[in-house]
Amino acid sequence: MACPYFYPTERMIGRLWPHPARLPLGDGHAGLCQADPGAEYRPGERAIAEWCNLGYARGQCPRCPGGDGPDAVRFTVSGEGDGRVRIYWTREKDHRPGDHGPLEFDIALRSLVSPHPNLILSRQAEAYAESYLRRTGRSHD
């Protein structure tokens, strides 16, 4: 369950997590904190390792907003066929599901067929799909 304010920009390989394939996005990622939409911020290693990639940072991460917003985003592959990976997403609050829905990732184009209006959620879904394709041996890198 990644932080709902974390925009992954690149895959991180190595030292921060003993089992990166178990991470919510399927790999560890560096990226940007967009908790404050008017101030782009690149979190340090501690935040990346403990909150950005794992979510549920409210009360721990100084940048995480209070209030009724979501605490984490969860993804799962719900199917695959016709050159697409079907992904189901759920945003959680207090470990309970909130809003949710399907997305499709086009394997050949390496992008979502119809991105979600929330650009962070869309980018996380793409990162998750790319990790899934790496684990199944169909990655470009």
Strand and helix map with partners:
Elements: E1 6-12, E2 28-33, H1 45-52, E3 72-81, E4 84-93, E5 96-106, E6 111-112, H2 119-135
Outline the structure in words.
With 141 residues, the chain is of the alpha+beta class. It has one domain (6-135). Helices cover 18% and strands 33% of the residues. The chain has two helices and six strands. The protein has helices at residues 45-52, 119-135; strands at 6-12, 28-33, 72-81, 84-93, 96-106, 111-112. It is globular and about 45 Å long. The two termini are 24 Å apart.
Summarize this, please?
With 141 residues, the chain is α+β, with helices and mostly antiparallel strands.
Descriptive key words:
single chain; alpha+beta; 4-stranded antiparallel sheet; 2 helices
Q: Give the number of domains.
A: 1
Mean pLDDT: 93
Strand composition percent: 25-35%
Rg of Cα set: 14 Å
Structural class: alpha+beta
User: Could you give a short account of the major beta sheet?
Assistant: 4 strands, antiparallel
What is the terminal separation in angstroms?
Answer: 24 Å
Beta-strand segment tally: 6
Low-confidence stretches: none
Q: So how many helices?
A: 2
Q: Can you tell me the overall shape?
A: globular
Strand order of the largest sheet: 3-4-5-6
SSE pattern, N- to C-terminal: EEHEEEEH
Question: What level of helicity do the residues show?
Answer: 10-25%
